[in-house]
Amino acid sequence: GLFNQLKYIMAQQAPHMSTRVLARIIRGPRNAYFRWSIQRALSSIDHVLASYPKSGRTWLRYILSYYFVLAFGLDCSLDLHQMFSVLPNLDWDADQGLPAFVSGPAIGLVPLLAVTHERPRLFRNHDVPAIYMTRDIRDVLVSSYFHATRHKRDFQGDIDAFIRDRSRGLHHVA
């Protein structure tokens, strides 16, 4: 599969090349190539966890990663950055995507559960079990509001204005 090819390239053809450099070579922009490459990768993926943004995916990923570390006896100290080597994103990012899993402590020991915000139609035609995580829309809006005002700081206004905003509020989510 694709991951065996990637491991072969890393081990045989480019032992001096870091995972970050290799990921930059194969990643490509989010366009047709990205979707095609992810479609190919799906044949090597055991499960997919998809969710709408701000649905609590990070915490579920951390809990599952912690469980996998304990259940499979992985030798790693888990934190919010290291968890990507156990449950990677469904992309080619060197630190948080599939290359992080390939070079991490879980390869060959833990089922590959890739995590994404992509809609389920991306993997509908593949024999990959998918879990789509949802959350009450009111909670998503509150979490999105605090993310936009406290983390990104790219929205000015109260939560009522945020909910009415056509690009981020209720119209965008629903």
Strands side by side in the biggest sheet? 2-1-3
End-to-end separation in angstroms reads 37 Å
Return the structural class. mainly alpha
Q: What would the principal axes of the Cα set say about the shape? A: globular
Major sheet summary line: 3 strands, parallel
* Tally of DSSP helical segments: 8
Share of helix, binned: 40-55%
User: How many DSSP E strands?
Assistant: 3
Poorly predicted regions:
24-29
- Supply Rg: 18 Å
Strand share of the residues?
5-15%
Average pLDDT, all residues: 80
The H/E string reads HHHEHHEEHHH
Fold and architecture overview:
With 174 residues, the chain is mainly alpha-helical. 44% of the residues lie in helices and 7% in strands. The chain has a 3-stranded parallel β-sheet, with no helix packed on it.
Topology:
Elements: H1 2-13, H2 19-27, H3 32-41, E1 47-51, H4 57-72, H5 98-102, E2 113-116, E3 130-133, H6 137-151, H7 159-164, H8 170-173
Parallel strand pairs: 1-2, 1-3
Please sum up the structure shown:
By secondary structure, this protein is mostly helical. It has helices at 2-13, 19-27, 32-41, 57-72, 98-102, 137-151, 159-164, 170-173, and strands at 47-51, 113-116, 130-133.
Name the features:
mainly alpha, 3-stranded parallel beta sheet
